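Whiteboard transcription, Tuesday session. T.W. wrote the structure tokens on the left side:
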């Protein structure tokens, strides 16, 4: 996270003043009579942003729209903050203090939008300083944002930025072994336990799904376990998070076609990045829940020993899978991780994967289809969290007819369904490896942006971290 954030009681700084425009009683404290007149006239003409240079600092005033629902109002605050970043950059502002004079408590959401919009991944530039945004520090002056709320927000922002970093890393750096090194380093820094299985251990366990995808690669797979088990945990049996960890996906022998289909496949580990970021955030925030993160990591390449269509693979669970397409590889690795989760006797399992193009076609970058057998209370809480952070989720049906499409003539199931509802048939495949309360989230649409949209910067978005942190914090 490249923006330092803190609470302050001082107003001796560049100010970002938030208002809904209905009441300007606060303005005498910051603006001259002439400036207040300019502000009032501008508000009448639907001007949303104002800049008032002072003798030493600036006063930026932003008029925020009201949404029909609190979730929309909160999102308007995040988007307004992203717009403000352009103003701050124009005037080369390095430090600013947010103060809220609107009737809505949106200070935290505004800070969230500003920090996430200011995120940069500059690791591989020689001229890092020349490309850095000017904003380095944001302070918050607020009587309503409690210290504990602020500290939790700082944790989830750090986790989101860590997830973005991993998605943005090129495969030339981030393969399965280096992902495991990142996991171990994060565990030491933030306080969660880590364990990594190497290829020999994976072979001994018989994780055939992971091993089959890895056959075409010269880089060995890893199986990564992250455990946050605080002494004051409120749940005896853990919540298990499973992330798809395909570090790069060529499609294997079923090679992806050209024209943009493979160019950004470094993002195919977005699910593992989400799990990583969530573990960072909850450990840093010391959330009192037992939580486990699992990632089966590999790349998918068409090497000389690559698995091919027609192969039958025996997964870790013993279930056999007929391979029809080697580009349906994520579900093969997830199958082993979902089966491994059983040993924890989990209270709930949530998996995250950039799994299907069908999910992306269904909702684009605006939503996440999810499905599974967890009870309605869990689903309601997750949908509420999705609205809270504007990572909205939509439940898909798991009708038995969809399961018919993955029946195989030569094995227990096949790894590809019919020509329709691919995101649901993929979910039906994963269902075979679960015997616990479980939900699957296909994040293929919002995990990676091809252009900046508001506070979602180009490339990795870290989607899933804010959603699940909010859910766990309110669990």
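and on the right, the sequence the group agreed on:
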């Amino acid at each position: 996270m490249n923006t330092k954030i803190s609470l302050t009681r001082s107003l001796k700084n560049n100010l970002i003043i938030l208002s809904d425009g209905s009441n300007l009683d606060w303005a005498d404290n910051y603006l001259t009579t002439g400036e207040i007149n300019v502000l009032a006239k501008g508000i009448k003409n639907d001007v949303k942003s104002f800049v008032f240079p002072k003798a030493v600092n600036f006063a930026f005033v932003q008029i925020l729209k009201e949404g029909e629902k609190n979730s929309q109002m909160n999102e308007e605050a995040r988007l307004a903050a992203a717009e403000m970043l352009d103003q701050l950059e124009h005037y080369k502002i390095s430090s600013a203090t947010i103060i809220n004079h609107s009737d809505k408590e949106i200070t935290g959401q505004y800070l969230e939008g500003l920090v996430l919009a200011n995120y940069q991944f500059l690791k591989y530039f020689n001229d890092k300083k020349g490309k850095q945004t000017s904003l380095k520090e944001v302070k918050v002056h607020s009587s309503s944002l409690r210290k504990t709320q602020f500290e939790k927000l700082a944790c989830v922002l750090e986790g989101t930025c860590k997830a973005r970093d991993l998605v943005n890393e090129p495969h030339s750096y981030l393969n399965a072994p280096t992902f495991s090194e990142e996991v171990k380093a994060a565990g030491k820094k933030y306080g969660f336990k880590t364990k990594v299985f190497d290829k020999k251990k994976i072979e001994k366990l018989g994780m055939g799904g992971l091993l089959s995808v890895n056959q075409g690669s010269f880089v060995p797979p890893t199986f990564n376990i992250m455990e946050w088990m605080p002494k004051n945990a409120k749940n005896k049996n853990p919540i298990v998070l499973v992330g798809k960890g395909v570090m790069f996906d060529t499609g294997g022998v079923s090679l992806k076609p050209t024209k943009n289909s493979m160019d950004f496949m470094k993002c195919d580990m977005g699910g593992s990045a989400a799990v990583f970021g969530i573990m960072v955030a909850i450990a840093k925030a010391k959330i009192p829940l037992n939580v486990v993160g699992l990632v089966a990591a590999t790349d998918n390449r068409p090497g000389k020993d690559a698995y091919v269509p027609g192969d039958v693979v025996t997964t870790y669970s013993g279930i056999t899978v007929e391979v029809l397409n080697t580009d349906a590889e994520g579900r093969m690795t997830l199958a082993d991780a979902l089966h491994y989760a059983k040993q924890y006797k989990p209270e709930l399992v949530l998996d995250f994967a950039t799994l299907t193009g069908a999910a992306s076609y269904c909702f684009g970058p605006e939503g996440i289809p999810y499905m599974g057998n967890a009870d309605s209370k869990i689903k309601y809480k997750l949908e509420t969290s999705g609205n809270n952070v504007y990572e909205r989720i939509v439940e898909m049906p798991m009708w038995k007819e969809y399961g018919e499409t993955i029946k195989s003539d030569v094995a227990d199931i096949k790894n590809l369904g019919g020509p329709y509802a691919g995101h649901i048939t993929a979910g039906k495949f994963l269902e075979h490896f679960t015997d616990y309360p479980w939900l699957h989230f296909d994040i293929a649409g919002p995990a990676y942006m091809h252009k900046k949209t508001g506070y979602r910067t180009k490339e990795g978005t870290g989607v899933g971290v804010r959603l699940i942190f909010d859910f766990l914090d309110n669990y």
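Someone added at the bottom: The radius of gyration is 24 Å.
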